[in-house]
């Protein structure tokens, strides 16, 4: 791939495709009825794959004041002269079943690590590892603005329902550099909040914390920023920073007030390498 600086900075929402993301069904259907010449041209069009590997710091559990180090892995693909598609650094793994005209939706998958009494520093029940399955919908209002919503249900672990609403502004110069920033709102149901923020009478007796029953609603509001910069046609850097402020019943939890923090910070940095060429 050759990265050539453009004559002017453009604000666009480019196409960034994970290696595990398949083509939309409509595109597959059109390809099936296309002419042999068009199919051959499509197969001959070169592909590029950008892989990022690094590390990130994230809260050890929802409401924690301590951090855990986790791997940061990012994979993006593009075909021919297309730029890598924009994807916010904090959105879940997804598969766009429908993708066209600025609109996309499909399934989304996520996970939440476990929380033990040792993690909190108090004798509270363990919340096991949670696999989250659900869906997403997003719409690009213009070349530089996108709105996205995700809803996921916990399978095991917290067993709750969690939703993320995000908006992003994107500035980029082709694939040479990209910067994004936007607000975030996180909502969760009573089951999710009960797992991480409530204190039952039994837990109160063992931990010394007051009894507390957290209801569902808005859990946090925040801001996420991401950036990508190419130093050469092959090597680059990718990173992000995120801040969430717990509100409502989550912020009022004695677990958060005594052992955690309403301020939730996270961020990561990775080195990227691009395979293939334009």
- Integer-rounded radius of gyration: 21 Å
Mean pLDDT: 86
Structural class label: alpha+beta
Number of helices: 7
Order of helices and strands: HHEEEEEHEEEEHHEEHHE
Number of beta-strand segments: 12
Describe the sheet with the most strands.
Answer: 12 strands, antiparallel
CATH class: Mainly Beta
Distance between the termini: 5 Å
**CATH overall fold name:** Porin
Layout of helices and strands:
Elements: H1 25-33, H2 36-44, E1 47-59, E2 67-79, E3 93-94, E4 98-100, E5 103-112, H3 117-120, E6 130-142, E7 145-155, E8 161-173, E9 177-188, H4 190-197, H5 201-207, E10 217-230, E11 235-246, H6 248-252, H7 254-259, E12 263-276
Antiparallel strand pairs: 1-2, 1-12, 3-5, 4-5, 5-6, 6-7, 7-8, 8-9, 9-10, 10-11, 11-12
Question: Top keywords for this entry?
Answer:
278 residues; alpha+beta; Porin; twelve-stranded antiparallel sheet; 17% helix; disordered N terminus
Give an overview in words.
It is a single chain. The protein contains 7 helices and 12 strands. It is of the alpha+beta class. It has a single domain, classed as Porin, CATH 2.40.160. A hairpin with a 2-residue loop joins strand 6 and strand 7. The N and C termini lie close together (about 5 Å).
